[in-house]
Amino acid sequence: MRSERCRKRPSQVYCVLGSARSSAIGRSVLSIIGAGSFAYYTVKDRLPQILTKVIDTIHRNKKKFFEEYGKEGVEAEKKAISIFSKLRNEMQTNKPILPLTDNCQDTDIWNQYLDYQKTLLGNGEDPSWFRSPWLYVECYLYRRIQEGMSFSPPISEYDVFRDVKNESFFQSQQAMMALCTHLQELKKTIASLSKEQRQEEFYRLLQVSLWGNKCDLSISGGQDNSQKSSILASLESLKSFILVNNMDSLWNTLTKGKDVGSENALKTRVDIVLDNAGFELVTDFILADAILFFNLATEVHFHGKCIPWFVSDTTKHDFDWTIQQFLAVNHKWMSKCGQTWKENLKKGSWVYHENLFWTLPHEFWSMEKIAPDLYTELKKSDLIFFKGDLNYRKLTGDRKWDFTVPFSQALKTFHPAPLCSIRTLKADIQVGLQAGIGERLSASDANWMVSGKYGVIQFS
Ligand SMILES: O=P(O)(O)OC[C@@]1(O)O[C@H](CO)[C@@H](O)[C@@H]1O
Ligand SMILES: [Mn+2]
C-alpha cells in the first residue's frame, strides 16, 4: 500500500511529546469529542459510516480478488472484513485505542503518540475512541485501515477508497472540461492582458482551487460529492462566502521584485500541500499551471499522501492516474492540459513529494522536531499553499482558538516559509476573523463552520 519512497523515515524519527501539546493560548483548548459537538457526530456517526463503506467495498471486490489471486484473494477478503468489523465495533463501543502492530516505518511514532495521549489523560486511564482528541482519533482510524490491509495479503496494496475516488472523478468531467477550456482560452490571450487583468485572472483560479475543496469524500461520508456545474460561473456569487481573503498578500508575495509576464522570472518555488483527489486535484493542477505561465514561479512542488487518507486525499497513484486520464480523454483541451502537465513533470518544473509526516496525527508545529527533513524541504519554498480543512486543523493544532486570534499566532512556531491556507470550513476551528464575524455567523447559520459553504484564503 505504501510506495517505496514512503519508506524513507522522517530523519531522527522520534516523537517530541512535551511540546506537541503546548499550553493553551487564550481560549484554545483541544477540539475534544464532547457530546453534541461536530467532533462527536463525526466519531459517532460518520466514521462508522465510512468504515462500513470500506467493508462493503472489499466485499464488492471479492470476485476481482479471486480472479487476481485465486483462493488467497478470497481468504484475504474474508480476513480484511473481519478485521474492519472488529475495528468498527471497537470504535462504536468506545474501546481503548490500541497500539499499532504492523511494524511499518511510522509504527513507533504512532505508538509513542498514543503513550503521550495516556500521559495527558493521567490517572492511568486509557485513551479511547470517544475519550481522545478528535484530530488524533480521526487520523488513527485511517492508519488502522492501512494496518488492516497490510494484515490481509495479497490485497494489501488495494486502495479501499479507489472506487469512490474514481467515481468522483468521472462525475466531475463536465466541470473539468469547462476549466481546461477556460485555461486554454486564457493562454491564448495572456499576452494581451494588462498586469491588473492577469491579477484578476489569477484570483479567479485561486477561488476555483478554494471551492474545489468542497469536493471532499470524508465530510460526505463517502457519498457522491463531485463538482457538477462549472465553478467559474459561480465565483461572483460565492465571493461573499470567503471570510478571509488575503489574495492581495499572495499576489504581492509572488510578484515582489518581478515584472509579471517577463520571461526571466527568478528561480521561484511554490509548494502545494495537496488535499483531495478528483475535481479538487484538477483545480490545483490548473492553479499550478497558471503559476508557471503567469511567470509567478519557475517550479511547483506537490505534496501527496503515502497511504489512502480521509477517503479522498491524493496519493501518488491518484496524482499519476489523473494525468493519465487527461491524456487519454477524448477532449481537445483536457488532453492538451494532460500533455502540458506530463511535460512539466518530465522537465522538473513540477515535482511530486511524499513524506510520512502528512499521514501522522501531529500538529504542524511539531514538524520541525518529528520530520526535520520535511521542514528543511519546505523552507526552500517562496510560498506554500495548504489545501483543505484537515491541513487547517493541523496548522492551528485543532485548538478551539477565539475567532479573532491572528492566524500567525495559531501557527505557533510553524513557519518554514510564507504560507497560505485555501480551505472551505468543514470543522469547527477558525482564526483570524474580524471581531464579531464569528458571532454573527453563529447567530445566522448554526452550521457555518462545518457545512463547507464558507471558505478562507488565509495568508501568513
Ligand atoms: O481536508 P478536507 O478534505 O478539506 O476535509 C477533511 C474533512 O472532511 O474530514 C474531517 C471530517 O471528518 C474534517 O477534518 C474535514 O471536514
Ligand atoms: Mn481531504
From TrEMBL:
InterPro entries: ARMT-1-like_metal-bd_sf, ARMT1, ARMT1-like_metal-bd
Domain Damage-control phosphatase ARMT1-like metal-binding: 42-440
Any one GO biological process: DNA damage response
Keywords: Hydrolase, Manganese, Metal-binding, Methyltransferase, Nickel, S-adenosyl-L-methionine, Transferase
Superkingdom, taxonomy of origin: Eukaryota
Gene Ontology cellular-component terms listed: nucleus
Record has Metal-binding as a keyword: yes
Gene3D superfamilies in alphabetical order: 1.20.930.60, Uncharacterised protein PF01937, DUF89, domain 3 (3.40.50.10880)
Cofactor(s), names only, from the UniProt record: Mn(2+); Ni(2+)
EC number: 2.1.1.-, 3.1.3.-
GO molecular function: fructose 6-phosphate aldolase activity; fructose-1-phosphatase activity; metal ion binding; protein-glutamate O-methyltransferase activity
Reactions catalysed according to its record: beta-D-fructose 1-phosphate + H2O = D-fructose + phosphate; beta-D-fructose 6-phosphate = dihydroxyacetone + D-glyceraldehyde 3-phosphate; L-glutamyl-[protein] + S-adenosyl-L-methionine = [protein]-L-glutamate 5-O-methyl ester + S-adenosyl-L-homocysteine
Keyword match Glycoprotein: no
Homology family: Belongs to the damage-control phosphatase family. Sugar phosphate phosphatase III subfamily.
Domain notes: Subfamily III proteins have a conserved RTxK motif about 40-50 residues from the C-terminus; the threonine may be replaced by serine or cysteine.
Role noted for this protein: Metal-dependent phosphatase that shows phosphatase activity against several substrates, including fructose-1-phosphate and fructose-6-phosphate. Its preference for fructose-1-phosphate, a strong glycating agent that causes DNA damage rather than a canonical yeast metabolite, suggests a damage-control function in hexose phosphate metabolism. Has also been shown to have O-methyltransferase activity that methylates glutamate residues of target proteins to form gamma-glutamyl methyl ester residues. Possibly methylates PCNA, suggesting it is involved in the DNA damage response.
PANTHER family reported in the protein's UniProt record: DAMAGE-CONTROL PHOSPHATASE ARMT1
The protein's name in its UniProt record: Sugar phosphate phosphatase
Source organism: Aquarana catesbeiana (American bullfrog)
Higher taxonomy: Eukaryota, Metazoa, Chordata, Craniata, Vertebrata
